[in-house]
Amino acid sequence: MPNGRPGDSRTHDILHHGLEVFGPPIDALVREIDARIEPAERDAFILLLETWPFEPEGTPRDPDALLQRLRALRRQLDPPRPKPRLEPVGATPPHRSPLPPRRAGSPLAALAGLLVGAFVGLALGCLAWLVLRFGVIPPYLWWDRGVMATVVAAVAIPSALVAALQGGRPTRLGHTLVIALLGFFVGSLVFGLAAGLLALVAAAVAGRPAFGDGLFLLIGYGVMPVAATIGGALLAGWTARRAWRDWLG
Prior knowledge:
The chain is mainly alpha-helical and 249 residues long.
């Protein structure tokens, strides 16, 4: 009976004594399988090794056949690999999204958007009335409250609705419009005030009284609204472009 000494068992010689029995490739494969095989399959594995025929000179008969059988056994021990999932042409992979997740809307955010949009819209509506007053509206309607209210409402109401919709259900287009609206508000405020200040400074340098000869009205109703419109449009375009791009992350 084998007692564990070299030569008593081929399997024992390979695993415990480090002896070469079948050749380096097969012996290395035997050690790999032994480390992974289940106990229930171990007896059949050892039987295969111990009963494999040898030539009289002490070399294994048909080692390629034994190598193929051991490789087949090793493949059985490998866990099954998941089959790759084929997506239709043009479909977005499941782990990717065409747009990154954005902050969800809420009724409170919609209400806040409505208030902010209405405030900004009122300011921009007044600016629109000042611009149209000297370019479109005839002089006899300059102080007509109905005309003024119509012009202001035509700007304020859409502004409030866009901001409210963006707060309740954010979208890329709504986000861009709201940011552009705020950009126009800030740009028109900064450029309008800066233009008015520069006009007053220029009048003082020229020695003309700011409150005489209608100069103040020209600055307040002409220079400042035009500068505010141009500055607001420039900043609105810049902020809208950044907002549209940043929505994609």
